[in-house]
């Protein structure tokens, strides 16, 4: 009798394992020159990843998975190029890898979540992203009189894409694919909006690593807000209210800083490399003669609430201006500037003319020397 029960348990367990088994078949569309391909579980501990050998352009991952999980697939162990998101779930999955354009042309198909996510991405591409990419290519070589029109169109499309994505997320609150999409977008929401949307996800998702990571990161944002509200600004930190209506941006700032050299920092609250320069910026402020040199911070593409919090938390001395998208486009047009990425630094001389529109960073030894030389 005992042997019969034991045999029955073994059969049941074996059946459960078969139900939870996955097979991920993959192939390369185009040439490949590596022996291995890798997949790693969210949030991406690359020291703990699975590998599959590539033979004749084919590879296979197999294993057991109890519940669907977010995974990343990548190529080349050292460089970690071509990171692609997919959902590892029981059943047979098929991956097609294209190294020429991994992000857009590589995908994993099969399974409810992958099919749902691929459909969502395909709709975004068709409705918004393909047009955005094409306009960005045009903007890179556009004449000044066309640049504003192109940038306006790009901004409108990004806004429409965000709204489309948020509608998908809210209408699929029981989906891990929708939760992952929210993880990619939630920094565009306020902390209160993020908390509200998180609360609407199905309880079955609350124990996932993805949900917990968004929850923890949003809690950090809440704590940052509370801490910022308790900090008072010093006299050397000035948040300047100006809508820049009519007059060019730099002209307005120059009038407030007559006969001074201006070191202008373009940054955003979400920009990691921008924030990495802040300790050097604070050190630079203490080493310059602020009666001759002004440090100007122009925050772009950010939430105004987050802007004020960051200024307080970082203790950035200098003059701070909040630049919305409309003002930023006007600034680029007025001064024939192209700022493709941040952080970006500009130096304006005592005569009010731009001396260097791609100045060295605060961490560079050349920056202080250049500012002192121009101010003498």
UniProtKB/TrEMBL annotation:
<protein>
    <submittedName>
        <fullName>DUF4369 domain-containing protein</fullName>
    </submittedName>
</protein>
<dbReference type="InterPro" id="IPR013740">
    <property type="entry name" value="Redoxin"/>
</dbReference>
<keyword id="KW-0676">Redox-active center</keyword>
<dbReference type="Pfam" id="PF08534">
    <property type="entry name" value="Redoxin"/>
</dbReference>
<feature type="domain" description="Thioredoxin">
    <location>
        <begin position="222"/>
        <end position="376"/>
    </location>
</feature>
<dbReference type="GO" id="GO:0017004">
    <property type="term" value="P:cytochrome complex assembly"/>
</dbReference>
<keyword id="KW-0201">Cytochrome c-type biogenesis</keyword>
<dbReference type="InterPro" id="IPR050553">
    <property type="entry name" value="Thioredoxin_ResA/DsbE_sf"/>
</dbReference>
<feature type="region of interest" description="Disordered">
    <location>
        <begin position="357"/>
        <end position="376"/>
    </location>
</feature>
<dbReference type="Pfam" id="PF14289">
    <property type="entry name" value="DUF4369"/>
</dbReference>
<feature type="compositionally biased region" description="Basic and acidic residues">
    <location>
        <begin position="357"/>
        <end position="369"/>
    </location>
</feature>
<dbReference type="InterPro" id="IPR013766">
    <property type="entry name" value="Thioredoxin_domain"/>
</dbReference>
<dbReference type="GO" id="GO:0016491">
    <property type="term" value="F:oxidoreductase activity"/>
</dbReference>
<dbReference type="InterPro" id="IPR036249">
    <property type="entry name" value="Thioredoxin-like_sf"/>
</dbReference>
<dbReference type="InterPro" id="IPR025380">
    <property type="entry name" value="DUF4369"/>
</dbReference>
<dbReference type="GO" id="GO:0030313">
    <property type="term" value="C:cell envelope"/>
</dbReference>
<keyword id="KW-1015">Disulfide bond</keyword>
């Amino acid at each position: 009798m005992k042997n019969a029960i034991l045999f029955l348990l073994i059969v049941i367990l074996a059946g459960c394992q078969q139900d939870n088994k996955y097979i991920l078949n993959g192939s390369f569309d185009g040439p490949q020159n590596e022996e291995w391909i890798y997949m790693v579980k969210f949030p991406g501990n690359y020291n703990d990843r699975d590998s599959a050998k590539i033979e004749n352009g084919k590879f296979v991952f197999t294993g057991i998975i109890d519940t669907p999980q977010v995974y990343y697939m990548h190529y080349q162990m050292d460089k970690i190029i071509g990171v692609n998101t997919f959902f590892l779930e029981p059943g047979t999955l098929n991956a097609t890898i294209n190294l020429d354009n991994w992000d857009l042309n590589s995908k994993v198909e099969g399974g409810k979540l992958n099919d749902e996510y691929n459909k969502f991405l395909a709709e975004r591409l068709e409705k918004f992203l393909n047009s955005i990419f094409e306009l960005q290519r045009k903007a890179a070589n556009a004449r000044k009189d066309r640049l504003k029109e192109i940038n306006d169109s790009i901004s409108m499309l990004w806004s429409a894409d965000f709204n489309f994505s948020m509608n998908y997320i809210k209408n699929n609150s029981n989906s891990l694919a929708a939760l992952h999409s929210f993880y990619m977008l939630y920094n565009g929401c306020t902390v209160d909006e993020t908390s509200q949307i998180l609360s609407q996800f199905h309880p079955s998702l609350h124990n996932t690593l993805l949900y917990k990571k968004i929850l923890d990161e949003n809690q950090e944002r809440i704590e940052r807000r509370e801490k910022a509200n308790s900090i008072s600004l010093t006299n050397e930190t000035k948040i300047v209210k100006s809508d820049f209506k009519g007059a060019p941006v730099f002209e307005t700032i120059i009038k407030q800083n007559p006969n001074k050299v201006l070191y202008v920092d373009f940054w955003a609250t979400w920009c990691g490399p921008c924030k990495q320069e802040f300790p050097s910026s604070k050190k630079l402020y203490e080493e310059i003669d602020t009666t001759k040199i002004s440090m100007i911070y122009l925050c772009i593409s950010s939430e105004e609430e987050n802007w004020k919090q960051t200024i307080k938390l970082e203790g950035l001395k200098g003059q701070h201006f909040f630049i919305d998208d409309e003002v930023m486009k006007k600034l680029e047009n007025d001064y024939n500037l192209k700022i493709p990425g941040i952080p970006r630094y500009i130096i304006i001389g005592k005569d009010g003319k731009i001396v260097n529109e791609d100045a060295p960073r605060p961490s560079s030894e050349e920056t202080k020397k250049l500012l002192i030389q121009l101010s003498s």
